[in-house]
Amino acid sequence: MTDGARLDIATPQDYLVIEDNATLANFVVVLGRCPVVAVDIESNSLHHYTERVSLIQVTGRDGDGVCHHAVIDPLADVEVPMLGPLLADPEVVVVFHGADFDVVSLKRDYGFTIHNIYDTMIAARAAGIERFGLADLVQRYYGVTLNKKFQKHDWSERPLGKDALDYAHLDTRYLPEIMDELKRLVLEGGRDDLVAEECVLIESRNWAPRVAPEEAFLTVKGANRLPEDAQRVLREVHAWREKVAEKRDWPPFKVMGTDLLLAISSAAPDTAQALEHIAGSRNRMVRRYGPELIEAVAAGKATTDKLPRLKNAKGRRYTREDDLLFNRLREWRNAQAEREAVEPSMVVGNQVLKEVSALRPRDEAALAAVPAIRRWQARRYAAALTAQVAAFEADEAGGANAGA
Q1: 20 to 30 Å CA-CA from 272: which of 132, 146, 178, 219?
Q2: Do 19 and 114 have their domain in common?
Q3: 382 and 266 in one domain?
Q4: What range defines the domain where residue 234 resides?
Q5: Does residue 57 lie within any of the structural domains?
Q6: Does residue 135 form part of some domain?
């Protein structure tokens, strides 16, 4: 199919809304005849502290090419684990778009094992498609513009209106055929090994905090630019925000945004007037929790312990020389991405470049031992990456000799 062609589409009314076990059981029988099953979820993460799967959309394509669509309500009296054997079947291709979040959420809430994943977002990126969002791909292949009205909807609210359900089910309706088109492009570009390896890695991912709780404040964007005394205040104010968010069942950003969090941590106000000067007199959280915030600031100012630090590969801190090598590797990577007509992360991501900068592998075996490196990256770029490291070290040695 050429880019100008359009896939045939079905009407948006022919999907099931599953709210009971009998209907789900019947649908699972239908899915059992489908070698391709597309899955998407909606969660309540934008509206609640404790995240959970709030809707599951499924499209199965049977051996005759006929698609069967359903929206499953996991908040109703439905035994969602009925889907488990199907998702674990290695003979079934399970299609996601942007699989990471969906897979870890389904594992977290239902303990699923999911095999044979095909991620159409990864495939689109590997194929060099610049606009790889689901809506972009639907527009590209179907000429259909998806409604963005419900992108920030609270999917835990009940009842769900038909317009919301129509919107949700479209997230899987198009995926089987889009997968077919992307597989062709990826194969033509010789990057099918990339997609296969990335999809296998997704199968093993599980939900977990990115860092230990005592280091969570360091993940606030901009925290690393604060001096240590302000970081100690940030640690306490961040912990206060988490406590309030959990108590009120709000996502933390609804308690206090990042900019205000950093501003309070930096200024360390010790009076209500000073706090209002930073936050504004109309800030409802400051009005309600002002004394608690000032207490958290005071607690941070009173601490003198050594702060934790997020570390790089093998726990070693980055040096100035590591940064210089990283910049050199990034320039090479960006040029390579331009030559291949893909985005830079489809060559080597920044995290890998940072680890290479710290560990300085000198041959393919050493490069393969870099923690974040993929096998497909080592196969493609080992010679280039190790050559860049060697050239940098030669320049370093030359500079040192010149200064001796």
Answers
A1: 219
A2: yes
A3: no
A4: 213-302
A5: yes
A6: yes
CA count, 13 A, side-chain hemisphere, 177: 19
Q: Does the residue 193 lie in any domain?
A: yes
State pLDDT tens for residues 285-314: 888 899 999 999 999 999 999 888 765 444
Q: State which of 203, 232, 254 marks the end of a domain.
A: 203
Two tokens, residue 371? 């923690």
Nearest to 106 by CA among 171, 37, 157, 55: 55
Give yes or no: residues 124 and 151 share one domain. Answer: yes
| pLDDT confidence tier of residue 7, bands split at 50, 70 and 90 | very low
- 193 is written with which tokens? 């090994």
Q: Is residue 376 part of a domain?
A: yes
The span from the CA of 280 to the CA of 32, in Å, is 58
Which contacts qualify for 325-329: CB closer than 8 Å, 24 or more apart? 325/356, 325/357, 325/360, 325/388, 325/389, 325/392, 326/353, 326/354, 326/357, 328/388, 328/392, 329/353, 329/356, 329/357, 329/385, 329/388
Last residue of a domain, one of 302, 328, 349: 302
* Helices 192-203, 175-188: crossing angle, 10 deg rounding: 130
Token output for 364: 């393919």
Evaluate the omega torsion of the peptide bond into residue 213 and state whether it is cis, within 30 degrees of 0: no
- Asked whether residue 8 carries a pLDDT value surpassing 90, the answer given is no
